[in-house]
Design brief:
The protein is of the alpha+beta class. It contains 2 helices and 8 strands, in the order αβββαβββββ.
Amino acid sequence: MNNTLIFSQKNIIGKSYKALISKSCKEFNDGGCTIKTFCTISFENKNVIIKYFVDANCTTTQREKLYEENAKKNNKSSTWSIKNSKIHIQNFTEFGDFEISENSIIGKEENNEKLEYVTFYEIIE
């Protein structure tokens, strides 16, 4: 293992990153919703915590709560490592392995044979 990888791994521990992964509008007979789905990735010493949350703006707050609760069902914890200068998260293949940037990590998402890059920005509190 070279010094660059050790330095990167130590610098990512304790950091969290967030990305807007989808946004949509839905129309219903009794109103509608605008829905933004976010994913956060928080790195601990050997584990990573992946959380999803939704910012739903719906005509009925009952519908907002349903979207928020459904997003939480995808939350998980896993292990992570750095291989070939990329972050690999075990059992989390949605964005592939992540490239490390100064204040972000970048994943790739394939939709209908189209490759898109998803940038997770560091959460600075």
